[in-house]
Amino acid sequence: MRHARQTQTYLDTDILVLGAGLAGLRAAIAAKHPAPGLRVTVVSPCQRPSGSSFANRNNALGVQAPAPDQAKDFVAEALRLAAPGLAEPQLAQALAQNAPACLDFLLSLGLAFRREPSGSLRFFPGCFSTTPRAVVFDGLAQAHAALVAQARALGVAFIHGHEALRLAQESPGARVSGAWLAPLRGGGLLGLRARCTVAALGGPAPLFARRICGPGGSGLAYGLLAEAGAQLVNTAYLQWFWVEAKSRAFVNPGELSWPPHLAQLALARLQHCPMAFGLPDAALDLELLSRQEPGGIVHAQHPARGTLALALAAHAGNGGALINTQGRTSLPGLYACGECASGMHGANRLGGAMVLSALVFGARAGQAAAETAAQTAPSPDQSLGPQPAISADPAAHRLFLRGLRRGMQRFGLPGTAYSPARQAFAARLQAVAEDARAGQRERLLARSALAVQEAPETGALARASGGQRA
Ligand SMILES: Cc1cc2nc3c(=O)[nH]c(=O)nc-3n(C[C@H](O)[C@H](O)[C@H](O)COP(=O)(O)OP(=O)(O)OC[C@H]3O[C@@H](n4cnc5c(N)ncnc54)[C@H](O)[C@@H]3O)c2cc1C
Fold first, then answer.
1. In Å, what is the CA distance from 255 to each residue of 156, 211, 275?
2. Nearest to residue 348, comparing CAs of 207, 208, 429, 237?
3. Hey, what's the torsion of the CAs at 82, 88, 93, 94, to 10 degrees?
4. Where is average pLDDT lowest: 98-107, 127-136, 314-323, 408-417?
5. How far is CA 145 from CA 42, 56, 359, in A?
């Protein structure tokens, strides 16, 4: 691949936040509290509301908001849903512990919460739960504006139009000391040195041809974290939604016509929008997947609407860098939060728990990063490690991305059986990920895709489902 001629500029900050979704903005705001004099810089490709936090098609978000007397049940429910993925009890407990503060924070922003006629907050059961303890707010652009205004008022700086293409470090596994940023519209690389770095890069849904995540995501998060040597968990567990292939309107498989012996499973399936992992009603989704025609279309009968042409679309990820209760990853100097962090939920998560997690661990990561940075002497001469090579050919990049997304849609869905074609696709990904002549975006996308496709859990799932699909 042809590489762009690269010039570099170097900048310094104290805390670098990569990504400007809910998690990144919450982290940046929290980082300003312990030591207001520290420089906090947020990097994001777009200035306008983007990503799943601020540009998702529902224009609304649900948030789990367990009251203190509901904390125990919330944690038990979250952990029960985690199998066959990994969830750490202390991380689920952190969600419950900080949920009231998180709700107060959102209320302080003046967001448009859904309310009862009496004016009190209206509580809903989130997916996978029958307990009404989630609240919902509408108006994501308004939420974005409120968070950005608060961050700017505190003195947070923004660098838009750039994306991180490598975490800066001497070698994989070493301390992270900032990031290499590439401009989206041409120009040289920017080496941004930081005492602490917070990854809030969003999830893996952009890796798939059929997806219903918000626009503006890159799909680079797992690749960036894996390349740096961070420990990743639960990366095979995405949330998958069935949609009508043309309109992308959501359809719950529980609404479809099923033979009488599957009626109980259909009833259970109605309690959650995303496909489950490891729960009995996943049998319905796997049955639909086994009927996929070329192009991934499944024809299914709806009792009221006749034959529907359905497809499975990627919505959000439950995996990412394993963090501790302070949002620290396994790498010194690197924190993670939001959809690129994991361990607070496993294979399945309660509806509304991702927004809670983005806010709770955004706040914890930002605060811990600032406390650490305040105690770390700046080291302006510290090397940022090798700089990445950017592809100079946007058309070649688009072609690569299209092929990767098609391949992931074919081979990266739950229950995909082992096959020579799947193995060949994985081998191609591996070759790109290791090819020093490939562009860095392509290498990272390949690494992200491998993290989803080759996670040990995917194989276990394929075996559990009998490997229905070729
Ligand atoms: C339609 C829809 C509805 C949803 N509803 C709910 C709900 O009701 N409740 C719930 O809990 N969850 C819900 N989710 C999931 C939830 O919205 C997301 O998981 C969450 O908002 C993710 O927040 P985030 O900040 O981690 O990522 P995002 O909001 O996706 O932000 C990621 C940011 O990182 C930036 N970025 C990406 N790559 C780079 C890079 N290389 N360098 C720098 N920046 C980069 C992006 O541009 C963006 O600014 C929903 C998701 C969708 C798609």
1. 47, 21, 14
2. 237
3. -120
4. 408-417
5. 15, 15, 16
CATH of 8-236+318-375, one of 3.50.50.60, 3.30.1440.10, 3.50.50.100, 1.10.3720.10: 3.50.50.60
**What phi and psi, each to the nearest 5 degrees, are found at residue 125?**
-80, 135
Q: Which atom of ligand 1 is nearest to the CA of 136?
A: 8
Q: Give me the pLDDT at residue 466, please.
A: 34
Ligand 1: residues whose CB is within 6 Å? Answer: 18-24, 43-46, 50-53, 56-58, 61-62, 163-164, 200-203, 212-214, 216-218, 220, 315-316, 338-339, 352-355, 358
Closest-CA residue, ligand 1 atom 31, reads: 21
Residue whose CA lies nearest to ligand 1 atom number 27: 202
Domain boundaries, the chain: 8-236+318-375, 241-315, 394-464
pLDDT of residue 302: 97
Which token pair is 292?
Answer: 């996929």
Q: How far apart are CA 209 and CA 211, in angstroms?
A: 6
**Distance separating alpha carbons of residues 311 and 461, to the nearest angstrom:** 20
434 CA distance to ligand 1 middle (Å):
28
Which tens digit of pLDDT belongs to each residue from 76-126?
A: 999 999 999 999 999 999 999 999 999 999 999 999 999 999 999 999 999
Task: Provide the residue type at 233 as one letter.
Answer: V
Give strand pairing partners of 342.
322
Q: Which atom of ligand 1 is nearest to the CA of 22?
A: 25
Number of alpha carbons in the 13 Å side-chain half-sphere of residue 424: 4
pTM: 0.95
**Whose CA is closest to atom 45 on ligand 1?**
19
Q: How far is the centre of ligand 1, averaged over its atoms, from the C-alpha of 423 (Å)?
A: 30
CA-nearest residue, atom 19 of ligand 1: 339
Contact 404, 430 (CB under 8 A): no
Give the Å distance between the CA of 339 and the centre of ligand 1. Answer: 6
